[in-house]
Each structure stands twice: as C-alpha cells, then as structure tokens.
Amino acid sequence: MTDWTWEYEGYDPAEEPLREALCTLGNGYFATRGAAPETGAGPPHYPGTYAAGCYNRLVSTVAGREVENEDMVNLPDWLPLRFRALPPDDGPPGPWWTPDAHPPLEHHQVLDLRAGTLTRRLRLDTPQGPLAVEQCRLVHMGDPHLAALRTTFTAESGPMRLEAESALDGTVVNAGVARYRDLEGRHLTDVRTGEDSADPGTVWLTCRTSASGIGVALAARTRADAPGGAARTDLSGGRAARRLSFALRPGVPVTVEKTVALFTSRDPAIGDPCGAACQRAGTAAGFEDLLASHGRAWRHLWDRAELDVPGKAGRILRLHLFHVLQTLSPHTAELDAGVPARGLHGEAYRGHVFWDELFVLPYLNLHFPEISRALLTYRHRRLPAACRAAREAGRKGAMYPWQSGSDGREETQTLHLNPRSGRWLPDSSCLQRHVGSAVAYNVWRYAQATGDLGFLHTKGAETLLNIARFWADSAEYDPGEERYRIRGVVGPDEYHEAYPDAAAPGLDDNAYTNVTAAWVLARAVELSRTLPAPRKAHLFEDLALEEAELERWEDVSRRLRVPFHDGVISQFEGYGALAELDWEGYRARYGDIRRLDRILEAEGDTVNRYQASKQADVLMLGFLFPPRELAALFARLGYRLDDGLWRRTVDHYLPRTSHGSTLSGLVHGWLLARERRPEAWTHVEEALTGDVADVQGGTTPEGIHLGAMAGTLDLVQRGLTGLEFRDGTLHLDPAPLPQLCEYGFSVRFREFWGIGVRVTAGALDVSLPSTANAPLRVGLHDRTVTVAPGETARLALPR
Ligand code: BGC
C-alpha cells in the first residue's frame, strides 16, 4: 500500500460488490466497474458500464400500478476475457475458470490512482500445474472512447495450452440494485454483432436504447503475442467474441491485449457509432503506448488538483478526488450531462442528478471551472423544462426537478420500496423545491470564483432570475404574520414529507428553503441591477420582467418567514410540536438506526411524527454561508441571528439526526470544525470513511456517493481553512482539526493558477508560482499581505 494505491489481498466473494464500486475506472465520458473480466454478471459480480448522460425510460408494474422510471443505462459489457486450460490430448476443454468455482491460490488487486489503472495478479492451479495471470486495465483519460485490458499468462512449471475468449456482451440488463429488481431493466434492443471487414481480428457490437433511441457501438481488437496460436470469431447469443488458443512454455509469458472503443449516437464528430468504434479500436496504439498517454492525461489532472494531506485521511481524500475526476473530467465538459449522485459507478438512484452538485461545484470551481460551467449549462439547457413544470404547477419562473435525467422533467420515483417491510410506499421527495436554490447558488459561486461574467450575464442570469421568479411566486403573503410563507414543500431532511395525519404531503416554511429562497431573490435583484445596460434590456424584454416585479422580489427577500421554537430555529412550522423519539431505546433495539424512516415504517409508525432528521436541514445554512454572511441574511429578513441562537440550534438538531445520508456527516463535520468543537472529528471521519468502509450498510456497492466525496475535498480546501475570495483578496480563517492540522493544496482563482496553501502547526504559507502575472492579496483575520509571483508569505496563526 502506498499513498497512491489501494490494494486488496485475497479473493472474497462477499467483498466483491464493494471492491467493484471502489475500483471503477472511468474518464468522465464513461466508466466501468472493477469487476472480474472472467465471470460476467451474476452474484456477487456486476460488471456495469455507464456513459454520462445516457438514459432510457421503461414502464414497470409494481404493487398493481404502472410506474415509469428513467435509468442510466448499463451498456454492453466490454470486459469479458475468460480462459481455460485445454487438455493436452485434444479432448474436450474443461469449464472456463472462475474464482468462485476454483478459488485462486493467490489474488492481489491494486488500484493505482496516479496511473489510473487496476491491476490484478493471480495464481491458479490447473491440471498442468500453476498458472500466473496478470491483468491490467485502463479507461483512457486522454481519449475518452478507449479502454484496454492486458492479460499476461505464464505457466509456472510445465507446458500447457490455453484458450482465451475476449468478448463484447450485449445481453446485459440493469439489475445492479436489489431494490429495483421488480422493475423493468431491459433497456437495450436491436443487438447486432459483426467482424470488421478491414480487420478480421476486430469484432463489433451495436444496439440501441429502447425508448431514447441512443445508438451504442463497441468494437474490440484482441491480439496475442503467441506464435503459432489459432483464432476464430463467434458471433452468437448477443455477444461478439474472439477465441484464441495458444501454447504456453514454462516461464515464457504470453500476452493478450484487448483494446475497446465505445461510441454513441450522441457523440460529435462521427459518421456512425459503429464505424467510429471500429476505426478507433483498429487504429489504437498498443497497450504500453496507451498506458503512457493515459498516464500523461492523468498527470495533467493531478497537477490541477494538488492535494497533500498526510496519513489515512490523505489516502482517502486522494481516492475521493480520483473518483470525482473519473465521473466529472474535462471530457464531461464536452457533453450534455449533470452530476450523477452516485457517480458512473453503479445504478443507485438510477444515475439521476439531485442537489448534490451543491457539494461538488465549489470544489471544481477552484480547479476545473470549465467542468463547472458545463454542469451549469446542463441545468440551463433544461430551463424550458423547469419553466414548464412551474407553469403546470400554476407558478411562474423555473421549478427544477428534485431528480433530473435526460430532458429535465421530474424523474423522482412515485413509489419506493422499503426493503425492511417489503412495502411499496408513495414517495413525495419531489417536493424538495430547494433544489432550485442549489442551482442558483452554484451559478453565483461559480461566477464569484471565476469572474466569468460572460456566463453570469447570459445563461447564468436566465437561470437565476427564473428561479427567483419561482420563489417570489411561491411565496404567499400572510397578513396575520405580516410575512411571506412558502407552503407544501419538503426540506433537505427527507424524513419529513408531511404533517402527522395530514391528508396531503408537504410542510410549511421549511427554514432552509425560505432562507435560501431569500438569498436567491436578493442575488437576483442585485444581478438585475448590475447587468450591463444592453444585456439588461434584452433579458428584461425576453423574460417580460419589469421593475415592479423586482420590487416584489426585494420585498419577499426581506420578509420570508423563518419559524422558531424554544429559542432555536425550527426546521419547519410546527416542528417543535412533534414528539420526541426514544433515541437510546431505538439504538439499543436496532444498533444502526441511520435509516430510521424504514425502521419506523416497518413498525407501522412514521418518522413524520418525530423530531428526528435524516440529515442536516436547518444546519445546512451554516454549511452554505459563512457566519458573517448568514447573520447578514437573517438581519435582512428582520431576524437577529447571534452566536447563542446558532449554538442552541446546532445543539438541538445534532442529537436528533440519524445521519441516514452520507452528506450528513460531511455537513456536521464542516460546521463543528468551524466552531472548533471536539465532536467534529467523529463526523469528518464518518464522511471520510462513508464509501471506503461502506458506512451506510451496503449502499456503496450500488455506486459511490459523489457529493460526500467532493465535499470532503472541499472540507479540507475551504471548510478547514475558511478560504474565501472577497473583494479581490484571498481570505483565510483556518480552523484546523487536531487530527488534521498539517496539509497543503493548490487552487485556481480567476487569473491566478496554482495558488499554494499550506497549513502547519502555528503558521500558514501562501505561495504564488513565478509564472503568475500579478501579485495576490491575502487576508488573515485583520491582516493583509501581498504575495508576489514566485514568493511565499508565511502568516503566523494565533495560538
Ligand atoms: C439524500 C439526498 C441526496 C440523495 C442523492 C439522499 O439519500 O437524502 O440529500 O440528494 O441521497 O445523493
């Protein structure tokens, strides 16, 4: 194990699903789980391949009802490479080897983050003696359409003959999540196979997604360096396979190289996907050269995302960065794709896009702003759909969907299964209208970090103003309260969807929703007033926006209601009247109560009755806004938010939260670290180990948690340093954790590339590369220093 590798010793079928997710390789265009190439799908193996933004819709019947779901499609499997020993006497071959039928003598797996490769080393017993197999794979970070798998066989003690089959498998379905197995999963149709006439060693497979009609093509070139070997093609059963047989002499390795190209009909600059795939696979360089160009592409990414955190935390953070970059890379910036909550690593949440980008873009803004811009453009392209949704709900402006997929309509399931009770239940989580504020927040923070006014004044403004308009129109004036109220929503805490015994779902005045809506409205007014005159005239004309409407926005932004009870901010109106849960009793009875909602439902109760949250809700406000900004936001709303009120609010919700989302540990860790509370580390640790230790009990095998992964990177970058760019100055206000107090990273801010920040005990170093064009102002508390290009400024930290 090094700082750059994750290694797994031995073969353990029970561990495979988690390893497959954590060893996924991808390049932002597509990704493939780290499954064994010789087994195909079947428990415990699930070799999924997913392309960013490639969705399909199917109708299923569950609980006597027809439901329609859109899924990120599991594409044909390019991994298959199986082998078997051939008997010396030309008799019938034995079965293909699998680790389940014949456990290997040795099995070692290495995920190399620097090189972007997954390597397996095995030794197996065969009737002709031990066979060593070394397998290395990559999903190319330079050419997003390429993947390659090199397998080297070495007979250790005696001669043997082997047959290897390298295939493309079009028989796959979406079946990666047990809870969804009652749902339709056959997304691929019209599977065709063939051999490239220009290169008979290259086979291809094409198909199409059944409803979205996306054409998918893969081509595989397979070559062995075995003199005198034989080869044939088998195109039966929805697979395109190449079979090679060859002799092995003891100690002389034979290498089989499989090079695969994947294209879809959504790709630019191609004639047809099949032609493009055959051409790309047929002309690709050999494995060694691909490895070199792939390594170079990765090096360039790592250079833009330098992160140096010592110890276990550092290793995990690097793994998080690796998976963030495999899901969202500069190649993603060329696509029409959003932030899939579970990466391209599995089928949980069907590859949908939630508010999780709120935890991802702040990190990307400071390293890969072109990716942030593309992800915001995904939202802008779906602005008409969001406006349509608002109209259908009788509202103005844009109502973004809680779950988004291909065309921007609401993709949240209407029924979900509680695996504990076996019941299909109505799902009202789509009432999380706060997702719109997340989109607006990201537009604003992106523009602040990059200075990209070209975006802010065009697509950014269109998006933000329409979201503001939705909020202003959703706010009802309550003359009794002399305040505006937003009713019938669900906040970030998904446990509360309705008032106990209410006939309809939805809650009133969710504090998070109202405060963020107020913030969006205030930013929309500010932006409208600062737009360059001609642009403002055009935009106002296009949106039919008039000063009178801006005045209403201003008014609503100052008078939205925030409920309080017992001296704390209420999560929503009426929260204080809910029952207290017997937390200790439930912990004693069930141990892990993260999914308290499922436990209570299975008992015939409902979590709606209790002061019990799944994740940070009110406290999200302290995550999004530094204390100064949050206090100002409350003051603008006519409320006084002082340290005492905030502390009491934190103390109220902390013991009443079950942390049933990986985002919860992150947000609590961030908040408590900034408040220098000793419990912070427990939450940070939970966020760090969420995926590597599969803390949510079996969810990581279904896909990594991208929001928490990116969020932990941002925790080190902004959370623990207080890093903020304000008034052209880099402000810092470190709150190092005793367990994480020495680390360094670099960020990009506007025209400054490679600003180095290093925190050590008692000091903070900020450096600028000599290539910088101008000096940088750095503020620490009440001091400001100027760092010249090529220099490092050391600032002492108060003890
Ligand atoms: C969380 C949501 C999150 C979603 C996707 C849920 O468990 O409660 O906040 O957006 O997962 O990651």
UniProtKB/TrEMBL annotation:
Residues 318-713 form the Glycoside hydrolase family 65 central catalytic domain. SUPFAM superfamilies: Galactose mutarotase-like (SSF74650), Six-hairpin glycosidases (SSF48208). This is Glycosyl hydrolase family 65 protein. Keywords: Glycosidase, Glycosyltransferase, Hydrolase, Transferase. GO terms for molecular function: hydrolase activity. Residues 8-266 form the Glycoside hydrolase family 65 N-terminal domain. It comes from Streptomyces albiaxialis. Pfam families: Glyco_hydro_65C, Glyco_hydro_65m, Glyco_hydro_65N. Belongs to the glycosyl hydrolase 65 family.
